[in-house]
Design a protein that fits this description.
Elements lengths: L16 H21 L3 H9 L5 H22 L9 H17 L6 H17 L9 H19 L3 H11 L3 H26 L7 H24 L2 H23 L4
Helix pairs in contact: 1-2, 1-9, 2-3, 3-8, 3-9, 4-6, 4-8, 5-7, 5-10, 6-7, 6-8, 7-8
Amino acid sequence: MIDGVSEQFLGMPGIDVWLFAGLSFAALVTAFIAAVAGTAGGLILIAIMAFVFPPALLIPLHTVIQLGVSSSMLLSRWRYFMRDTLAPFIIGTAVGAAIGGRIFVNLPESILLIILGVSMLILTWIPAIARFGPERGRFVFVGFITTFLGIFISATGSLLAAFTAAAAPDRRNHIATLGGLMSIVHIAKLVAFGILGVEFGSYAPLVAAMILTSWIGIFLGRPVLDRIPERLFRITFQIILTLLSLRLIAKAVGWP
């Protein structure tokens, strides 16, 4: 944990040069995973960062870094972005950020983790549920729930990934749309954190370095994704989401 550590590399409390380099490398690796698997990168990165930062600082910092990851996912595949999802998703995101920001300190994290984990399991193995109703109405709902939960537990990209994968005709559509919509979620969360008065500007050098290495990871993953057969991608995607879902549920009930 960062508390009680005296190092201040580039003026950042509790950060020495080795930790700076290690976190930057972790951002590269997890972004590569996100670019290839379409999920998991954000959850892995927040798990690593949790060993360094307290929760009040962890979630805003992770949000800024993941904004860099998501935007680069979109830019690397922007032609495949499913634009019909954009307007309804923005509506849901605005409502989710407004409500989530108001009750930021009141809901137990364990309840939200269980909701997220169970929802991911259902959407992964019964994908027809992720296609319920008209697409516009569906993405209003998913914009709301992804942003609302993200205020508390940050890494909700895996939940959104289940919906984008169900709607996407091709894995490239999934990657581009997931990146674009998660960028909106992260921006909305940062607005909410700003209103709440959360400050993390002293860690700007680390954030900049982790965003830069994330971009490198995304573009290294691009040619790998192009070579993966669609069926293999879908199966791997389901396995990763299942493992992440079970891990979230285990954490919620207090298992190691």
